[in-house]
Specification:
This protein is an alpha+beta fold. The protein has helices spanning 8-17, 21-24, 27-33, 39-48, 51-57, 60-69, 73-83, 93-99, 113-126, 139-145, 148-157, 159-166, 169-175, 179-187, 192-200, 207-210, 213-220, 225-235, 240-259, 268-271, 303-323, 327-343, 349-359, 366-376, 382-403, 505-511, 540-549, 570-581, 583-586, and strands at 282-283, 300-301, 425-428, 434-440, 449-456, 468-472, 480-484, 517-521, 531-535, 553-556. Helix 15 packs across helix 18 and helix 21 packs parallel to helix 24. The longest helix has 22 residues, at 382-403.
Length: 588
């Protein structure tokens, strides 16, 4: 069949142009679209076909075939859920069980009421532990779905486990209209966490409660500094005076804790939790908010465990006092700052020593740890900390801007022997280079942001090596939003939930997994490509784009470079990255 002659953008254009029922019903076409080299053609096709054609192509049998035969099934379903969620109505249980697998939770916002109801009922029946997924439905759909009857079902089983943590504030406010929900809250009136959750979501709570000394003391005496910081951050939006009162009370609380450390620097309140004096120690369930990772799933905690927990808490209090941020964020940021400073010195010596002391808190002796904690109380250096982080990022982005290949300055790369009508060809055959690229389409339209990648002598992995690859030599460092050494799943947004790391451009290439992502702001000033990139051969799409836009082509001999193309399992990498850097608990 004729479609076998096409790939990528051209395959998509062919199918759209010849979208007969007979073609769309062809098993050969469906199988061809499942081949790895046609993955993006499938995604683009699902986005651009009209709904009638999508309904013919994406029948239940084909959806099951995608699940069974395609190792990129999650990505294909991501495209389907965004572009044509209607095809998921009345599908088999096999397909529905795949739909509710976590991938991109934002996709659930595309569901209409009918499909959302179907998913809701399926989850209640088969996967009640995933009921939190309904929180990703759109507000309009949720308000229709959360009838009194459904809320009653949820309230008996799941509501207070998940609603405050997962639902948006607008939905919680909507739920508060139901007597059954208000009744549950009243029944939980002695549980401060319910009220704290409301505060965290910036949902109105009676002023009398917030200004009550009892409430102030409960917040100030929060054992876990990360929960405390979450509450303070949210209260700070509209309750500045209240936050000042809490901070004063917090200072008193921490000083009392320090004064009650025993001779081995264990917090006295932990000692008081012993149920009885015995070699068994204490029941781990009796300690409020203790980091579980230190307990190794023990049922019984020994005295040595209390010492580790006390050391960890001291460290967390230091991070909270000095940086007014979550411990994990502080560690990641300080590690980034100091590693970058080690290769590109910019910190003053006193700050450098302080940052390194904090990063190596577990290596300090007990007296040094306590001294650092005492000096941290009431001595925030938040502004300095954020200035240092921003400076490191700015310097790192400048290394990208300053190292980019500019073909006008590299005339020696011009390939005189490669004559192609109307196209100038430059060739890289092992030479050192750094290039900024974007894998796009013939009719590329750049929105508010664009996802770029850095390739170079150490690594030439890109998102779609067989498509059209635009090259840029004119990016500005002040418009880079973030860099990440693999796909950060920004999807055109201005941010990501992935942990950012600060690299100079060469370290970024060394640490890249498959392909990296540089999120770039094009809202204020559109970006224009300087050339096109092809690997080994000039494909037809790139030739057409080159002629139409008067762009030269950079032809890279991939055999002379480290080639590592294809998708990388970012979530698994992100998980390992977190485990690697979340070492402050492990080392204690």
């Amino acid at each position: 069949m004729n479609f076998y002659n096409y790939k990528g953008e051209l395959l998509k254009e062919y199918v759209i142009k010849n979208k007969t029922d007979e073609l769309l019903n062809t098993d050969e076409l469906r199988s061809y679209l499942l081949q790895n080299e046609n993955h993006y053609a499938f995604v683009w096709l699902v986005q651009d076909l009209d709904e009638k054609s999508k309904s013919i192509l994406l029948n239940n049998k084909y959806l099951e075939e995608i699940i069974d035969k395609d190792d990129k099934a999650l990505y294909k379903f991501n495209a389907i859920m965004q572009s044509y969620p209607a095809c998921l109505k009345n599908v088999s249980e096999k397909v529905m069980s795949f739909v509710i697998k976590p991938y991109n939770n934002n996709d659930y916002s595309y569901f209409d009421f009918e499909l959302a109801t179907q998913v809701f009922n399926y989850i209640l029946k088969n996967n009640p532990h995933k009921i939190y997924l309904i929180s990703y439905f759109s507000d309009d759909v949720l308000k229709k779905l959360l009838t009194y009857e459904n809320v009653l079902i949820l309230s008996k089983n799941y509501l207070f486990n998940d609603m405050f943590n997962k639902f948006e504030p607008s939905i919680i406010k909507y739920l508060l209209n139901y007597d059954v929900v208000r009744k549950i809250i009243n029944n939980y009136s002695n549980n401060q966490l319910v009220y704290f959750s409301l505060v965290i979501k910036n949902i109105s709570v009676e002023d009398e409660l917030l200004n009550d000394n009892n409430f102030i003391k409960k917040v100030a005496n929060m054992e876990n500094p990360n929960i405390y910081r979450n509450i303070i951050n949210n209260l700070s939006v509209n309750n500045y005076e209240l936050v000042n009162k809490i901070n004063k009370s917090r200072t008193k609380y921490l000083n009392e804790k320090i004064s009650n450390l025993d001779s081995n620097y264990v917090f006295n309140e932990y000692i008081n939790l012993y149920k009885n004096i015995s070699e068994k120690g204490i029941d781990s369930t009796s300690i409020n908010q203790i980091p579980i990772e230190l307990l190794s799933n023990k049922d019984i905690i020994a005295y040595n465990d209390l010492a580790k927990i006390s050391t960890l808490r001291q460290f967390e209090y230091v991070c909270d006092n000095l940086f007014e941020d979550y411990t994990y964020n502080v560690l990641i940021n300080l590690k980034n700052i100091t590693e970058f400073d080690g290769k590109n010195p910019y910190l003053n010596e006193g700050v450098r020593k302080l940052y390194n002391k904090i990063l190596n808190f577990d290596k300090l002796n007990k007296e040094e740890q306590l001294d650092l904690l005492k000096k941290s109380i009431g001595n925030s250096i938040t502004n300095k900390y954020y200035d240092d982080f921003r400076t490191a990022r700015d310097l790192s982005y400048k290394t990208i801007q300053n190292n980019l290949l500019n073909l006008n300055e590299r005339k020696e790369l011009y390939d005189k022997e490669k004559f192609i009508s109307s196209v100038s060809v430059y060739k890289l055959d092992g030479e050192d280079f750094v290039s900024c690229v974007h894998c796009g389409t013939l009719n590329q339209k750049f929105k508010d942001t664009i996802s770029l990648s850095i390739i170079g002598s150490n690594h030439i992995g890109v998102f779609n090596p067989d498509g059209i690859i635009f090259g840029f030599d004119n990016i500005s460092s002040d418009k880079i939003i973030h860099s990440f050494n693999t796909d950060s799943f920004t999807n055109g947004k201005f941010g990501t939930d992935r942990v950012n790391k600060i690299y100079d451009v060469h370290d970024l290439l060394k640490e890249t997994k498959s392909c990296n992502e540089i999120l770039y702001d094009t809202k204020r000033d559109p970006i224009k490509p300087s050339y096109l990139v092809c690997f080994d051969n000039i494909n037809e799409e790139s030739y057409i784009c080159s002629v139409n836009n008067n762009l030269p082509i950079l032809l890279i001999n991939s055999k002379k470079y480290n080639k590592n193309n294809g998708m990388y399992e970012t979530d698994k990498y992100q998980e390992s990255y977190r485990k690697e850097d979340d070492y402050y608990g492990k080392r204690l």
